[in-house]
Amino acid sequence: MQNVETIDQFYKRTNQIIPRELLNPSGNPSHFNVKERSYCNKVSPYNRRDYYKICLTIGKGKLLVANEVFEIERPALVFSNPTVPYSWESTSEKQEGYYCLFNDSFISPELKKGLERMCPLFNPLISPLCFLGKDAYQRVNGYFLQLMEELRSDYEYKYEVIRSILKLIIHEGIKIQSAGHVTALKDSSDRITPKFMDLLERQFPVDSPENPLKIKSASEFAEQLNIHVNHLNYVIKSHTGKTTTQMISNRVVAEAKTLLKQTDWDVAEIGYCLGFDYPAHFNSYFKKNTGLTPAAFKHQS
Questions:
Q1: Domain boundary among 178, 203, 234
Q2: Does 173 lie in the same domain as 196?
C-alpha cells in the first residue's frame, strides 16, 4: 500500500517551511495552519493523509475521492478525511480560496462531539463536497479570513477561538448537505448512530491481510452496542436513510476499492481481510455492489 502522507511530508511536497512544532517532535504535537490557495499545486498525489483538511475551493478542478470523481466548477467546501484517499487536479489556471489543515491532536472532544455522523470530516460515508451559494460563500470566506487573523494574533487562547470558527465552517457544510434531513441528537436512541459509526470506522483502514475485520454484520454490531439488532436497524435507518447492512457494505466496498488500487495484495488476500473466507464470495459481493469483479476493477484504468 502507498504510504500515508504526514503533515511534514505535505509541507515538503508543497515547498513550504515545516512549522517549528513539527521539527523533532516529542509525543504527538498539536498542529493547525491556514493558507491561501493562490499557489496550490496543479496535481496532488492520490493517497491517504494522516491529517484533516478543509478547503474553500475557487477554481475548476477534479477531485478524486475513494475512486469517485467530482467535477468542481464553482465555489465549494471540500472536507478531507484521513481514512479516505484523495487527489486534486486543477483544470483552470486560476485557483483561489483557502485551506486549513490540522491533526488529530488538535481536535478537542468539544470540536468533534456530535459531529461524527453528520460531517464528512469525520464520517467517510458522507460526500466530501459542498457547493456554496452566494450567501454561504460570503460566510465561509469570512470564516477563513477570521482563521488567518486569529492564527497571526498573540491571544493566549487563540486556538480555542480557531476551534470555534472551525465548528462554524463544519456546520455550514452540514446545513448545506442535510437540507433539513439531519436530526439533532435528542435522546439516548440518537446517540446510537455515532457509536455505531465510531465502531465501524475503528476497523479502518485495513493495514495487513493478517488483520481481518472483526465485526462484519448488523447483529455483531448490535451485540457490541448491547442493543437488539432490530433497534439498531431502526435507528440507523431513521438517521441515515440506509440500513445497517448498507452502511457496513458501503464502507467495506470503499475499502476494497482502495486496497485493490493501492496495494499489490491479491484478490483472495483482500477478500479475506475484509471478512470473506472464500474468494468466490468476495467476487460475488464486490460485483453485486459495483458491477465489476475485483480483478476487473483492479486493472481498470
A1: 178
A2: no
Q: Note whether 223 and 232 are within 8 A (CB).
A: no
Q: Return the CATH number at 69.
A: 2.60.120.280
Q: What is the mean pLDDT of residues 268-289?
A: 93
Per-residue b or e along 77-94, where b marks 16 or more CB atoms closer than 10 Å to that residue's CB: bbbbbbbbbbebebeeee
Q: How far is CA 169 from CA 60, 86, 107, in A?
A: 21, 21, 14
Whole-angstrom distance, CA of residue 243 vs CA of residue 29: 39
SS3 at position 129: strand
- Cα–Cα dist 243/234, whole Å: 8
Which residues constitute the domain of residue 255? 192-298
pLDDT, tens only, 176-185: 887 544 443 4
Identify whether the C-beta of residue 47 lies closer than 8 Å to the C-beta of residue 4.
yes
- Is 87 in a helix, a strand, or coil? strand
Helices (H), 14-120: 109-112
Domain harbouring 268, CATH code? 1.10.10.60
Whether this model's pTM surpasses 0.90: no
Q: What is the DSSP string of 158-191?
A: HHHHHHHHHHHHHHHHHHHHHTT-PPPP-STTTT
Query: What is the pLDDT at residue 179?
Result: 59
Question: Is the peptide bond between 29 and the residue preceding it cis, with omega within 30 degrees of 0?
Answer: no
Cα–Cα distance, 147 to 141 (Å, whole number): 10
